[in-house]
């Protein structure tokens, strides 16, 4: 009699994985009879090419790869009674396995290894498998980050942060420029396609502010450059009127990225330098500007960014209760 083996499937997914990503693999086995063992394995290119690791007397499943999770065995009712096992059935079953793994070049194989059982005898003995092979989209190779001028004042000096072109065949590339804040958050200074620099004011951080560039290719693989540390003078709040004027213009034009950059930089600086008067003037005007934003267009079209800004303001100690 012909052996009746389980029907195995790995859910459809991208076969080109981005370096540094985590991929979720879902495998389904149908018509799984008692005494079938289901396993999920990964074999790298090196593993596959190394014939020493193939089938041998001590490792029955070595040809499949390394286990991604422990095998699941379906037991029959009779075996459950005899062996006091808890997972049992006399009928065929449908089982699903999901596992996360780091993106890598190689093969994932879903294996059903079925032996003889008290229920079906040896009619369903044998091995079946389904597999998928992955390639890796490597992250861009970032270039050197340059900052000029070498020194300056927070919220006064315009800095130019630039980088040399990254190397990656999957263009066009997006260059995103960041600086670090006191609470370990990152502030996006600008994000551009194939543009290698941003000009911006920077906030004051007591031990120096870190800046870096993240480069992402067209398939979503990203990498970050080394950080540069800039030491700024704290300033005296003399540009608060100019910042308020700029904030009003950003609100009018609904430029959310520029608005967030200015708001975060100002509040971070005035808070870190204990400049209470500029902080009070700025936040009072800020709340008025946010109340007057076009709710039907600007806020509705940028709801996620607006919500993230409110969350940051609340965490920074700004009373946003009057906005609701």
Structure description:
The chain folds into three domains: 7-137, Immunoglobulins (Immunoglobulin-like, Sandwich), CATH 2.60.40.10; 139-235, Immunoglobulin-like (Sandwich); 237-324. The protein is elongated, with a radius of gyration of 29 Å. The protein has a five-stranded mixed β-sheet with strand order 2-8-7-4-5. Strands 11, 12, 14, 15 and 16 form a five-stranded antiparallel β-sheet that branches. The longest helix is centred in the last third of the chain and has 17 residues, at 256-272. 24% of the residues lie in helices and 33% in strands. The protein has 324 residues and is an alpha+beta fold.
Task: Give a short synopsis of this structure.
The chain is an alpha+beta fold and 324 residues long. The protein is 24% helix and 33% strand. It starts with 6 loop residues before the first strand and ends in a 9-residue tail after the last helix.
Which features characterize this protein?
16 strands, 5-stranded antiparallel sheet, 324 residues, 7 helices, 24% helix, alpha+beta, Immunoglobulin-like, elongated, 5-stranded mixed sheet
pLDDT below 50 for ≥5 consecutive residues: which ranges? 76-90
User: For the record, what is the CATH homologous superfamily label of the largest domain?
Assistant: Immunoglobulins
Number of helices: 7
Order of helices and strands: EEEEHEHEEEEEEEEEEEHHHHH
Q: What would the average pLDDT be, to the nearest integer?
A: 88
Q: Taking strands numbered 1, 2, ... along the chain, how are they ordered across the largest sheet?
A: 2-8-7-4-5
Number of domains: 3
Q: Between the first and last Cα atoms, what is the distance in angstroms?
A: 73 Å
What is the highest CATH level, the class of the largest domain? Mainly Beta
Largest sheet: 5 strands, mixed
Judging by the overall fold, what is the CATH architecture of the largest domain? Sandwich
- The amount of helix comes to 10-25%
Strand content: 25-35%
Shape assignment: elongated
């Amino acid at each position: 009699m012909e052996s009746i083996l389980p029907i195995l499937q790995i859910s459809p997914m991208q076969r080109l994985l981005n370096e540094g990503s985590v991929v979720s693999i879902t495998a389904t086995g149908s018509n799984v009879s008692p005494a079938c063992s289901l396993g999920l394995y990964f074999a790298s290119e090196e593993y596959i090419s190394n014939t020493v690791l193939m089938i041998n007397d001590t490792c029955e499943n070595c040809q499949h790869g390394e286990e991604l999770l422990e095998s699941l065995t379906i037991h029959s009712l009779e075996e459950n009674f005899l062996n006091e096992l808890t997972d049992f059935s006399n009928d065929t079953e449908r089982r699903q396995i999901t596992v996360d793994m780091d993106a890598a070049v190689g093969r994932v194989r879903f294996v059903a290894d079925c032996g003889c059982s008290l229920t079906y005898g040896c009619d369903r003995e044998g091995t079946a498998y389904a597999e998928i092979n992955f390639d890796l989209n490597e992250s861009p190779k970032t270039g050197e980050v340059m900052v000029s001028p070498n020194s300056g004042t927070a919220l006064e000096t315009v800095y130019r942060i630039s980088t040399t072109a990254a190397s990656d065949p999957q263009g066009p590339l997006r260059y995103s420029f960041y600086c670090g804040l006191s609470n370990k958050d990152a502030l996006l200074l600008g994000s551009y396609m194939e543009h290698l620099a941003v000009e911006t004011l920077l906030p004051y951080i007591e031990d120096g502010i870190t800046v870096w560039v993240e480069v992402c290719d067209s398939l979503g693989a990203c990498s970050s450059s080394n950080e540069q540390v800039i030491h700024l003078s704290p300033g005296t709040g003399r540009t608060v009127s100019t910042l308020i004027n700029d904030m009003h213009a950003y609100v009018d034009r609904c430029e959310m990225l520029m608005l967030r950059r200015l708001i975060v930089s100002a509040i971070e600086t005035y808070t870190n330098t204990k400049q209470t008067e500029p902080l009070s003037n700025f936040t009072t005007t800020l709340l008025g500007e946010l109340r007057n934003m076009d709710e039907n267009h600007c806020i509705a079209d940028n709801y996620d960014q607006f919500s993230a800004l409110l969350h940051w303001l609340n965490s920074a100690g700004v009373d946003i209760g009057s906005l609701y």
